[in-house]
Specification:
The longest helix has 14 residues. The chain is an alpha+beta fold. The protein has a seven-stranded antiparallel β-sheet. Strands 22, 23, 24, 25, 26, 27 and 28 form a seven-stranded antiparallel β-sheet that branches.
């Protein structure tokens, strides 16, 4: 066997005699220009706050719903309460007035709201208003030295734009994650009957991020993180934020009125399938077809008819009925929407004045004691997803501590029957539910299911 030692010695000598490589030349200024989000975040981070909420949650024993049980044991019909705490995020959008933008679900049913700033100062917050259907709420704090986040233009966002999410996931304050805009105009169905036009992003969003800030690389607010899709409760890259143009419109009404005066024109409709496009003689599936016009509604007064195809609203192309519903629902009552429609193959222009969605609403307490605290309204495009059956009435609002809530009613429930009688609309409901004494058996459609509620 030949020895390998001489070969190693020769190799070592050769390496030793080779010239040393020249050190890498780094152009001046390259290190200083290394890409970083830090300069932008120095101005943005102080505007994002932590929100802690204390609320009382009713704990009700099902046995207390039995009148015989209560009488036998001489028990009061009063549910017990337990204190509940939760956390979320918010963004200061008006430093001078102390307005903080957040999600409705962060502060819903809150008895006490506290806002912690990035400098660890803590302030009691006043709830200015909230809107469950868009999941937006506005708070106000009285504090000096605040910094507000400028609002960007979410309508200019494009898929692929870089964005940054800031909030307090799992209580970890001032957490920053980055990603891109993964999709636009998303509808998740999380908010039943709500107005959804979400920005989808893969920037990591987790519990506690709700109500925080989604910003562009200019340091402008473009969205409010609202919810995620997840099987585990943690981020899997499917996060959704409310676009700031929608949030800004709702915020303006909450500050002015304390609630949203949601617009309606009194129609229902559906998207155009390829089959419908062929039947109506349309070149593509853009637009929305009217399936019903509510009598005496703004749409009826403007002359709209069933089978009209809406192509544009205020010069914007309509892609779906949901888009039209969002546009109308966020316009102020009294404003005018100019529609371009197609009727019998011929284009027409129709102007419709936006009306209130509460024009025919009824207070439950006026009908039955167990309905007190609930407000009922007719079904139309302001409270019914595209394609839904319009028979019945919708539960527009429910006071969480009211008899109606204790009876099991929830906001967005649709009542389709009373005491085994089907109802078509408000007139039927008011007639059958106007029983000052006695029980009510309500047939309720909730989401994709249905149930019966017995009110005694």
């Amino acid at each position: 066997m030949k020895s390998l030692v001489p070969a190693f010695v020769v190799a070592a000598l050769l390496v030793a005699t080779l010239p040393s490589p020249a050190p890498a030349q780094v152009p001046p200024g390259v290190l200083a220009s290394t890409p970083s989000l830090a300069p932008m975040l120095k101005d943005v981070l102080p505007t994002v706050v932590n929100i802690s909420v204390t609320s009382k949650v009713e704990i009700r024993n099902p046995l207390l719903d039995d009148p015989f049980f209560r009488r036998f044991f001489d028990l009061p019909d009063q549910p017990q309460e337990r204190e509940f705490q939760s956390i979320g995020s918010g963004t200061i959008v008006d430093a001078a007035k102390g307005f903080v933008l957040t999600n409705n679900h962060v502060v819903e049913n809150a008895d006490e709201i506290k806002v912690r700033l990035s400098d660890d100062r803590v302030f009691d917050a006043k709830l200015i208003g909230r809107d469950p259907l868009t999941d937006i709420a506005v708070l106000q704090i009285k504090a000096g030295g605040l910094k507000g986040l400028p609002m960007g233009d979410s309508e200019k966002l494009e898929v692929g734009d870089f964005v940054v999410a800031i909030g307090s996931p799992f209580g970890l304050r001032q957490t920053v994650t980055s990603g891109i805009v993964s999709g636009l105009g998303r509808q998740t169905g999380v908010t039943e009957g709500g107005y959804e036009d979400f920005i989808q992003t893969d920037a990591s969003i987790n519990p506690g991020n709700s109500g925080g800030a989604l910003v562009n690389l200019k340091g402008e607010l473009v969205g409010v993180p609202s919810n995620i899709y997840s099987r585990s409760g943690g981020n899997i890259g499917l996060g959704f934020a409310i676009p700031v143009h929608l949030a800004k419109s709702v915020m303006s009404q909450l500050i002015t009125y304390g609630s949203v005066q949601r617009g309606r024109i009194g129609i229902t409709g559906q998207d155009i399938s390829p089959e419908l496009a062929k039947a109506f003689g349309l070149a593509d599936t853009r637009g929305a077809v009217i399936t019903r016009v509510i009598p005496n509604s703004p749409a009826a007064k403007a002359g709209l008819k069933s089978e009209d195809v809406i192509l544009e609203a205020n010069a914007r192309t309509i892609q779906s009925f949901a888009q039209l519903r969002n546009m109308v629902g966020l316009m102020r009552v009294g404003e005018k929407v100019d529609l371009k429609i197609l009727r019998d193959g011929k284009p027409r222009n129709v102007g419709v004045v936006i009306g209130k969605d509460t024009e025919q609403a009824a207070a439950g307490g006026d009908l039955h004691p167990r309905l007190a605290g609930a407000t009922f309204a007719p079904l139309d495009e302001s409270n019914t997803p595209a394609g839904e059956d319009l028979r019945g009435v919708v539960v527009q609002k429910v006071d969480p501590r009211s008899p109606a809530a204790r009876s099991g009613l929830r906001q967005s429930d649709i009542i389709i029957g009373v005491n085994r009688h089907p109802i078509e609309g408000m007139a039927d409901f008011e007639k059958l539910a106007s029983v000052k004494q006695g029980e009510l058996l309500l047939h309720v459609r909730r989401g994709s299911g249905a149930l019966f509620l017995l009110l005694q």
